[in-house]
Design brief:
Order of helices and strands: EHEHEHEHEHHEHHE
Number of helices: 8
CATH superfamily: NAD(P)-binding Rossmann-like Domain
Largest sheet: 7 strands, parallel
CATH class: Alpha Beta
Radius of gyration: 17 Å
Strand order of the largest sheet: 3-2-1-4-5-6-7
Distance between the termini: 35 Å
Strand content: 15-25%
Oligomer: single chain
Structural class: alpha/beta
Shape: globular
Length: 254
């Protein structure tokens, strides 16, 4: 484990929605005013988004670095992680957040729509977890948090590809947690429910009312709700939690 208070984190999919909130949360001070983590985040396309995050988050005294890469590429992951570790001076935390949707009913879903979601959502988790493990095993410390979804727990019509990818993440989390627990590394998953993002902002009033009727807390979650859970699982306070799936869903799947 790093002997300094400030952790070192790598986050995939860090420029929008939940990923952006996680970058900001992990780079913010904790209760005693110490910056929780320096950050290296990976993004796929929006250069302006990455620059804005570096400008706003990095100015709060955290070191924030951005790397552009195809998260579904194994070779890219190996290269990017080594560059990130060099910039950060190590790695204590990995947050696998990158994800896409290609929604369609199964009878209409193309092979490309299925494969693309599996590559980005699930294979990226394999790529980056494997790339950081050698560093975490060597230091006998690590926190890996995978962003799944309640859809991976209960399914959703029109999202067979997305549900399969997120259910795969849950299985991957539990298997990997068993493999590395003896090395001081915890592996957990966070399963967000319906969160206020660009995706849910497109819902009409009737669709929103239908969603809220299935959520006991009667509101959509925020990216910050998820980010704070990730921060907790990244901390030493969660040192006895591993192989778990934490649903941040307002009670929808209880």
């Amino acid at each position: 484990m790093s002997t300094v208070s400030r952790k070192k984190a790598i986050i995939t999919g860090g420029t929008r929605g939940i990923g952006k909130a996680i970058v900001k949360e992990l780079a913010s001070p904790n209760e005693n005013g110490i910056i929780f983590s320096d950050i290296a985040f990976i993004y796929g396309s929006c250069d302006e988004c990455a620059e804005e995050i570096i400008k706003t988050v990095g100015s709060s005294d955290a070191n924030v670095f951005a790397f552009k890469a195809d998260v579904s590429s194994y070779s890219d992951a190996q290269s990017i992680v080594e560059k990130a570790v060099s910039k950060l001076g190590g790695v204590d935390i990995l947050v696998n957040n990158a994800g896409i949707t290609r929604d369609n009913l199964l009878l209409r879903m193309s092979e490309e729509e299925f494969d693309a979601v599996i590559r980005v959502n699930l294979k990226s988790v394999f790529n980056y977890t494997k790339a950081v493990l050698k560093h975490m095993i060597q230091q006998k410390y690590g926190r890996i948090i995978n962003i799944a979804s309640v859809v991976g727990l209960i399914g959703n019509a029109g999202q067979a590809n997305y549900a399969a990818s997120k259910a795969g993440i849950i299985g991957f989390t539990k298997a990997t947690a068993r493999e590395v627990a003896s090395r001081g590394i915890t592996v957990n998953a966070v399963a967000p429910g319906f969160i206020e993002t660009d995706m849910t902002s497109k819902l009409n009033e009737k669709q929103r009312e239908t969603l809220l009727s299935n959520i006991p807390l009667k509101r959509l979650g925020t990216p910050e709700d998820v980010a704070k859970t990730v921060k907790f699982l990244s901390s030493n306070q969660a040192s006895y939690i591993t192989g778990q799936v934490i649903a941040v869903d307002g009670g929808m799947t209880m």
